[in-house]
UniProtKB/TrEMBL annotation:
Protein name: Signal peptide peptidase
InterPro entries: Peptidase_A22B_SPP, Preselin/SPP
Region feature Disordered, mapped onto this chain: 352-379
Subcellular compartments: Endoplasmic reticulum membrane
Lineage top rank: taxon: Eukaryota
GO biological process: membrane protein proteolysis; signal peptide processing
Length: 379
């Protein structure tokens, strides 16, 4: 694993953040460019998503393994839960005024975005604060806002830099909520992507494979078989998607945009990040991260090509999932390391023990349920 940098320089960063910092700067420049020049839309989509996955993956490299990770049961349930949420949003937009749904959801996501944006920026600006206030904590009022903020026990004690950045983030989110400018939308969306890829842990390649395969079919069903996914994406005016300006103007004077859902970045991104941490553990004796990242880019390119050829919305995971899984597992097969890669797990011992206990408990319950049936047969 990467070693921590000395406390005198970038105390909150790790050596892995050097490539991440470069990717962040490129990502910021690419996001600002359409404000002054016309950037080819297809290039913008591919480059932005690729840089977000690259930066988020490097941010995920920590000195210690994650304390909590997704389990196989979680991965199996994810497409079902996602389907329920997606269909619920579809019904909301169908039976509730669109402006009301968007106002409430944007307000809720905007509140969360304050914390997400602060967390995303903090590691790169902390050292610019004076040493005397860098780690000074402030006690917050003991209040609770259901589903948004809970400090009833007084455990939240932010530092002065965190409060200053939170105030700036609050102003930025307020601007987004008032104007709904595409640039503000993309900044918040990218912050969600970077934080998601950094902090969400699959725990193992097997769990990641289950999740990606499940969402592969989820994306195909909701895009090709129903109008639900496209309808929600078009009606939901919030930072759940990135907007890419197209050249030209519509007849009503509004600028047209191409869209890319955050899920098409975060879901494959957390798997690519897992593969990067596998390479880091092996001190880069293996190069599976390159395969995973190139597979992601290839899948994204295929999505754009098919979308332009058929002039219709495409389920991006239909192309990204085979690209990522095929590149990683194919590379492992050719390198004769398939079993080592497929069985890789970084779950903390406590997490593995918890899963083992759950599986043992489930086995005992099945055994107890089977005994009465056997006794009935003997009678």
């Amino acid at each position: 694993m990467a070693d921590a940098k000395p406390s005198s320089s970038h105390a909150t960063l790790y050596t892995s953040d050097r490539p991440a910092l470069t990717a962040h700067l490129l990502l910021l420049g690419l996001s600002l460019a359409p404000l002054v020049v016309n950037v080819p839309t297809n290039f913008n989509i591919i480059a932005t998503a690729a840089l977000a996955v690259f930066a988020g993956s490097w941010r995920s490299v920590k000195p210690a393994p994650p304390t909590e990770s997704m389990t196989k049961k979680d991965a199996m349930r994810f497409p079902i839960v996602g389907s329920c949420v997606l269909f619920g949003l579809f019904l909301l937009f169908k039976f509730v005024p669109k402006w009301l749904v968007n106002a409430l959801l944007s307000l809720y996501l905007g509140g969360i975005a304050i914390f997400v944006l602060t967390s995303a920026v903090m590691p790169y600006v902390l050292d610019f604060f004076p040493e005397v206030i860098r780690h000074r904590e402030i006690e917050l009022p003991h209040v609770k806002i259901p589903y948004v903020f809970d400090n009833s026990d007084g455990s939240m004690r932010p530092t002065v830099p965190e409060l200053i950045l939170a105030a700036i983030s609050f102003g930025f989110c307020g601007w987004y909520y008032a104007k709904k400018h595409w640039f503000a939308n993309n900044m918040l969306g990218l912050a969600f992507c970077l934080e998601g890829i950094e902090h969400l842990s699959l725990g193992s390649v097997q769990v990641g494979t289950i999740l990606l395969v499940g969402l592969f079919f989820y994306d195909i069903f909701w895009v090709f078989c129903t109008p639900v996914m496209v309808s929600v994406a078009k009606n939901f005016d919030g930072p759940i998607k990135l907007l890419f300006p197209r050249a030209g103007m519509l007849e009503n004077g509004k600028r047209p945009f191409a869209m890319l859902g955050l899920g098409d970045i975060v879901i494959p991104g957390i798997f690519v990040a897992l593969i990067l941490r596998y390479d880091v553990q092996r001190n880069f004796r293996s190069k599976y991260f390159r395969s995973a990242f190139c597979g992601y880019v290839a899948g994204l390119v295929a999505t754009i090509v098919v979308m332009n050829v058929f002039q219709a919305a495409q389920p991006a995971l239909l192309y990204i999932v085979p690209g990522v899984l095929g590149a990683v597992l194919g590379h492992a097969w050719l390198a004769r390391e398939f079993r080592a890669v497929f069985n890789f797990s970084e779950a903390a011992p406590e997490q593995e023990a918890k899963e083992g206990a759950e599986n043992a408990a489930a086995g005992e319950q099945e055994g107890k349920a089977a005994k009465p049936e056997e006794s009935k047969k003997t009678q």
